[in-house]
Design goal:
3 helices; 182 residues; elongated; 4-stranded antiparallel β-sheet; 8 strands; alpha+beta; Alpha-Beta Plaits
Length: 182
């Protein structure tokens, strides 16, 4: 305990002299040349603010449990091809924010599927595809229809990238879309 107290005292004495002081935020400052005004977006009679559905798809990048890892670029290319096809055929699509992740898990390798009847633990690179139902661009689609569309992406991704399971998670969220005003 005494060591922690001494360490705390030393940190208060030594560390502040090494760390440059942060400039305090001044809300009174205004730079009219670089200042832009943002307001809630409006588009085709829709407002860019609502309670909405948030979806996340967790997609492993290894084929099954034993296969090789696939590249993020392959997934991005596959998604953008789906978007282009949907847009060219006047169908809705779900834009995703795609981030790198790692999935950790354990699985039983069953003999009837060619395994060794043992438990195995593993981890693999993965992607998280996240999207919110847009109050501007998906306003005419019900929450259930939007979820069906998200799930169709999960199915297509799982099939294309040979996944044993693809997880989809939903939650409620508040969405605000701000647009620069001229």
């Amino acid at each position: 305990m005494v060591c922690f107290i001494l360490l705390g005292i030393l940190l208060r004495i030594v560390v502040p002299s090494r760390i440059p002081k942060r400039e305090k935020f001044n809300s009174d400052r205004s730079n009219k040349e670089t200042s832009m005004t943002y307001q809630i977006a409006q588009d085709n009679g829709q407002t860019g603010h609502s309670e909405a559905v948030h979806a996340e798809i967790n997609l492993g990048l290894k084929k099954g449990y034993e296969g090789f890892a696939q590249e993020k670029g392959e997934v991005l290319g596959f998604l953008t091809d789906l978007y282009l096809d949907a847009a060219q055929n006047s169908r809705p699509f779900v834009p995703f924010v795609v981030t790198d992740s790692v999935i950790t898990y354990a699985y039983f390798s069953n003999k009837q599927w060619g395994g060794d009847d043992k438990w195995h633990a593993a981890h693999e690179p993965a992607l998280v595809l996240a999207s919110d139902k847009s109050p501007l661009y998906a306003a005419d689609v019900s929450d259930d229809e939007w979820k069906e569309l998200v799930e169709s992406y999960a199915h297509k991704l799982g099939e294309k990238f040979q996944q044993f399971r693809v997880y989809v998670t939903y939650s409620r969220t508040e969405v605000k879309i701000f647009q620069r005003q001229s």
